[in-house]
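Deliverable D5.2: sample structural annotation.
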Amino acid sequence: MVLTRLTSTWGRAAASAAAALLLVINSAGYAGAHHGGRPIFSTCPTGGYPWTSNCSSVGNDRDHYVYVHSSVNNNLRNALLTSMSSDYDPTQLRMFSQTSITAWTDVRAYAGNYSVQAAGWVVCETGSATGVNKYGHVWCLKQGLRFNFNFSEYFNDGPSLNYITCHELGHTLGLQHWGQNLVGSPGTGSTCMHMNTPNGPTVLHQYDRDHINAYYYNYP
């Protein structure tokens, strides 16, 4: 197995690292009420879902291990690793890529042509280890991340690849969709956690980073 600690040295690292200097770090729980966006929470039940159902896990600790299967082509793989290093590693999280599945694996990323009507989704698969943290949120180990090449508009250019990888990784950590009409929403062009926007926002908003940093992901 090759295990790689991702740091802010990829394509969008400089901007993300600069933004990271502005983070408001809270002690635990949700980010403060003055923040916009959707708070971190989980939608996965304990015991897992069938793989075709969407859910979101908060992650069991601040070390996030992502196994990337060979079905993920080079362009998608590079976008995934870039998002891990540029969007998520500058937060309190520590992101690692894996070439094989281990007991530490949080996410298993696959790609293919699926009949599911979604370009990407995350699921806590049946049989995955799950638990509930003190906030009542479900964490899931070896959750499945699927990219669906049938939705080619999300995979045929750099901005679209950056958007969908940033978006789906967010769901593996408990980040939720932003809505265009939510109070405090900075608009569709500001965060990759907006829905259904190929060629559109490729990075996390500062609010998303604040939510990650305010949430108490356990130390391993």
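Annotation notes: Residues 3-214 form a domain with the Collagenase (Catalytic Domain) fold (CATH 3.40.390.10). Confidence is low (pLDDT under 50) at residues 8-34.
The annotation will be released with the project's public dataset once the embargo ends.
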